Every structure is written in C-alpha cells, then in structure tokens.
Amino acid sequence: MSANSSTAAVEPLKNTSGKKGDGGKKGNGGKRNVSRPLVYVLLSLGLLVMSAPFLWMGLSAFKTQSELSASPPVWIPTEWTLENFRQLLDKLDLPLYFMNSVIVAVLVTVSNLIFCSMLGYALAKLNFVGRNKIFGLVLGALMVPGNLMLLPLFVLMSKLQLIDSYAGLVLPFAAGAFGVFLMRQFMQSIPDELLEAARMDGASEWYIFWRIVMPLVKPALATLSIFTFLGSWNNFVWPLIATNDPDKYTLPVALATFATDPNKAGGSNGMLMAGAFLIVLPVLVVFIALQRHFTQGIATAGMK
Amino acid sequence: MSTTTEKARGPRKAGAAPSPAPGGSRGRKPSMGVQNAAGWLFSTPFLVLFTVFMAFPILATLVMSFTDFGLRNVTRPWEANFIGFENYVNLFGDEKFLKSLFNTGYFVVVGVPLTIGIGLVVAVLLNNGIDRARTFFRVGFYAPVVTTIVAVAVVWRFVLDPSDGLIAGLFSEVGWTAPDFLGSETLAMPSLIVMAVWRNVGTVMVLFIAGLQAIPTEVREAAKLDGASVWQEFRGITVPLLRPTLLYATVITTIGYLNVFEEPFVMTQGGPSDSTLTVSLNMYREGFNFFHMGYASAMAYVLFVVIMGITVLQLRLLKDNTK
After folding, report:
1. Do residues A165 and A267 share a domain?
2. ipTM of model over 0.95
3. Do B23 and A49 touch (CB under 8 A)?
4. What's residue A264's pLDDT?
5. What is the CATH number of the domain that holds A217?
6. Which of A159, B213, B234, B314 is the 20 to 30 Å CA partner of B121?
7. Residues B275-285, buried b or exposed e (16+ Cβ, 10 A)?
8. Predicted confidence (pLDDT) per residue in B55-100, tens digit
9. Are residues A168 and A258 in the same domain?
C-alpha cells in the first residue's frame, strides 16, 4: 500500500522534470528526454513479442485448414471461419468442462474467502496462545512446493473415494496459506480502537469479524477472489491426477489430454488454437477489466 | 517465535515505507480467555484442512519414500514394505533421474537470470523511462502471467511448429528454414525456457515496479543534481535499493522453475530422448503412469531438499550483501 502513496509523489516530479528537459539545457532532464522515444520503441517491440503468441492464436483459430498450412504463410485469414470451433465442439464437450472448472473455482474461492479471512483476523487482531506458532506454520506452508504432496494425496483421495468428485478437486485448495497471509496483512491496518469499542458494546468476536472487519477489507477480498479463482481456473497437475472419468475433467485437463493424444487432435492446429482461444479469452477479458487488482495484489504480497 | 517472523519479513519490508505496527500484540489483557477461545476457533478450519491435506501428505511422502509403495498399495497402503534407503540409493544410479535433475538445473540456471534481468529492465523502463501509457504496457507485459499454462503451452507448441508455426512463417518470409525447435535435443530445452521467461517476466516486472516506487524520490533527485548518468543512477541507487525485491523475486522464480512441469508435459512430453524431462515430470510419470509411488516419493523429497537448500542459500547470499 505504501507503494501507492509514493507513486503519487513520483508522478508530478517526473512531469515537471520532463518539461524542464524540453529546453535541453538543464542537467540530466534533457538527456532523459532524448532517450524517451527510444524507450517507447523498445517497450513497443517488447510488447509485440509478448502479444505475438496471443495474436497468432487468435488469428489461427479463425483460419481454414488450407490457410493454416499455407506456404508462404497467410498472416491474416482471408476468409474468417468458425469451422475449427465447430469441429472442436464436436469432439470435446467444452460446456461440460467449462462448468466443471467454474464449479471448482467458485467453491475454492468461497472457502478461501471465509477460512483465510477467519485465520487472517485471528492472526492480525486476536491475542491468543500459539498465535505466532500458527503464523510460522502459514509462512512455512507458503514455501512448500505443491508437488511434494501429490502422491499421498492421491492415495488419501482414493481411500476416501473422492477421486472424480468435486470435493476431491476442491478440498486440497480450500484454505491456502497465501490467502491467510494476504488477509492478515490487510487486517493489521484496521484500528484496534474500533474493535475494542465493539467489544465494549458486548459484540461477540464472530459479530466483530463478520460485520465490522469483513466489510472493511472488501478490496483485499476482491484481490483474494481474483487470485484464488484464477489459480483454480489455471490449475493443472492436481485435476489431472484426481480425475480419471473424462466427464469430470476441468478445462485445462481436457485441453491437455486432447492436445497430447495424437489420435484425437491429430495435428489439427486449428482446433487446438480454437480451444486455447476459448480458455484464454475469458481470462484475458477479466484481467484487463480488473487489472488494477492484479498488480496491486502481487505487489502487496511481495512488499509487506 | 515472534522475532523469527519479524526477521523473515524483514527483507521484504525494508524496501517499503514502514507499515503499520502489528496490531494488538501488547497492552491488552482484559479479555484474554475470550480471545484464546476465539483465536483457536477462528484458526480451526484452516488448521484442519492444513493438517489433513498438507501436513499429513508431507509426512506421508517421507514415509512412502522408504517403502516399495506400488499400485496395489493404493487400496492397501499398510501393506507396503519398508526398504530403508533403497529408493534413494537407486535414484542416484538412475541415469534418467540424473538427467531430469540436470535438465531442471539447466532450466533454472538459464531461466531465472533471464526472467529477473528482463523483468528488471522492463520495470525500470516503465517506471523511469516513460510517463504516458504506463498502464497499457504494464497490462501487456503482465497478460501472459494470468493465462492458463496448458493453453499457452498448446499455443507455443504451434508457434514453434517447424512447418506451419509462427516462427517458421517469419523465417520463410526472409527465405530461411526454421529448425524443428521441439524435436531437437539441443533446441527443445531453450525453447521451453524462452516460453517460461515470456510467461513469468510480468510477475517479476510488477514486483520490481512496486520496489522502484518505494525508493524515495529525494534520493533520485539528489543523484540527478550530482550529475549521475542514467547508468550510474541504475547501478548506484536502483539496484542496491531494490535488493529486497530482487531477493524475493529471485526466490519465488527459482522455486517455481524448480517445479517446472506443465511446459514439458504439454509441449514435448519430456522428449526428444528425455532432453526436456524435468524432475517433476519424471516424478509424475513414475508415480502415476508406472505407480512406482515409493520411488516417486523419494524423487519428490530430493527435489524438496534441493529447493530448500537453494532457497536458504539465496537468502544468505543476497541478504548478506545488503549489510
């Protein structure tokens, strides 16, 4: 959060120094300005490289089979076609996988919002024996690579008969350490006096948490929702392991299985680009709409 | 315990302006009993999930790594036999595992510096080099981070396709023939690294931008007045003051890259001739294709120890320099 306040301080100074530089006399301001167009060119080139795979995907998804394999290459499709999408939907039950992905992501997000906030509140605002130990546990959990748990988790889920179930996909991610950390950081900035006043009035801790603290940390909840939803939406390894029944696949698992099975995709790059397009597009749209939350969330988790 | 936590947070906090003091740790005694009960009640859901789905599996992996846990044990886990360190001994005589260890190291040693370096340059250019369209560029560079890795890997496989791909198309426009990037033992891994850099540079950039904005403007202005060149300012001010961010970005990028799995899974399936077989992919195959779960558990633990070792090393190396 401190980053924001200093941005505000940086901007005006930058602008004035830029204007001074136009005269080309005053110290370094001038030098900086001369190189400014160059910086724009460099960044634009970088941006072109960054977006090239997306553009390639978007254009290829609408090309006909002959234009996909034309040589010399056809960059912009001359006749836009939906044939790739039609074929893909014939072979792959995308609406089903889409629903699976949405259901899992929503359940994971809701449970994280509740459970991470609860512990975040306890760690930030409640004085209890063992608090520091639990916080140490949370920090430790942040460091543990997910791959370490896969094998016993699979055995455990098999024993519980949760393979091919939503519960099996959701439970291991129902309360992430990152969420606890994020919520604790935000809740620390709530003034203690506010909570004390409520306690004086006889409010229960649950009431204080649910009615006072939660509404105050809405921006943090928004950030956490976005990250958790996206993490679940993009998650691959665990759903790959925890589903055998193709009807329970999530989108990434369905696409990966389709793409790596030579009998199915059979080198049809058009279909694969159509599939990637359908998975990536909603994420990109949501990201561009909510981009402020993304960058702030990362920065907050990193800086605090 | 509280001092260790403060220390762990130290390097990250140092770059930012002082954040509000940890709330309510001192000077409130009255409702101690109530707070104890409430504190534990609020912690319960997380602790239960943590115990069952994290702590237990972490220990179970360790136990399994000393057994011959196989397919039949998925239904009857207790019948697995203890075989001591056999799995670990076998691992270090296993050419395939050693190769996957080497490949993972290659991915990290080349990929991490590239990601951090490019991320830093983009962040500095964005933050100090321009004053318009910053959000536009930031969004553009960050977009790959949010996309589904599987979809992105499928797209990149086609981008690198030797006959119909994007690169092949560009090459043919100037009359060259594109190599078969993913089909070549020498080019497959560099191709995966390029893709990983492309996908992760945005995360690093955002971290560095936040770090740059936390550098007091006065420091920069002073350097400018003293006639420091852009390069001198970068070397003398930006890099030293960014050290905490640099540390954090390096550590998380390294951990992520050591676990690399999806890229080779979708793009090369570890090939050609295991040249892109990483430890995670190897572990997945041993565990879930061949059901050598005891052996795969040993792999998981070796990787975990490597990750821990490297993280601690990085924390030491990069932290000591700040003093």
Report:
1. yes
2. no
3. no
4. 65
5. 1.10.3720.10
6. B314
7. bbbbbbbbbbb
8. 999 999 999 999 998 888 888 888 888 998 999 999 999 999 999 9
9. yes
Q: Domain span at residue A20?
A: 2-60
Q: What is the pTM of this model?
A: 0.82
List the 19-58 stretch of B: residues with Cβ below 8 A of A.
Answer: 19-20, 22-25, 28, 31-32, 34-36, 38-43, 45-47, 49-50, 52-54, 56-58
Q: Give pLDDT tens digits for A2-12.
A: 333 333 333 33
Work out the end-to-end distance of chain A between its first and last CA atoms, rounded to an integer number of angstroms: 8
The Cα–Cα gap between A15 and A98 comes to 47
pLDDT of residue B173: 84
DSSP helix/strand/coil, B275 = coil
Look at chain A and report how many structural domains it folds into: 2
Q: Which of B140, B164, B169 sits opposite A47 (nearest CB)?
A: B140
Does residue A201 fall inside a structural domain?
A: yes
Decide: residue B217, CB within 10 A, 0-12 exposed, 13-18 middle, 19+ buried: middle
Nearest CB to A141; choose among B54, B144, B283: B54
Give the phi and the psi of residue A144 in degrees, each rounded to 5: -75, 125
Q: Taking CB atoms and an 8 Å limit, are A10 and B17 in contact across chains?
A: no
Q: Same structural domain for residues A245 and A185? A: yes
The answer to the question of residue A286 being in a domain is yes
Do A259 and A135 sit in the same domain of this protein? yes
Residue B82 phi, psi dihedral angles, 5° rounding: -75, 130
Q: What is chain B's length?
A: 323
Residue with tokens 């889409």: A98
DSSP helix/strand/coil, B67: strand
**What CA–CA distance (Å, rounded) separates B81 from B66?**
8
B222 touches chain A (CB under 8 A): no
Do B102 and A8 contact (CB within 8 A), yes or no?
no
Residue A265 lies in a domain: yes
Give the distance from CA A195 to its chain's centroid: 32
- Residues of chain A found within 8 Å of residue B225, distances taken between Cβ atoms: 27
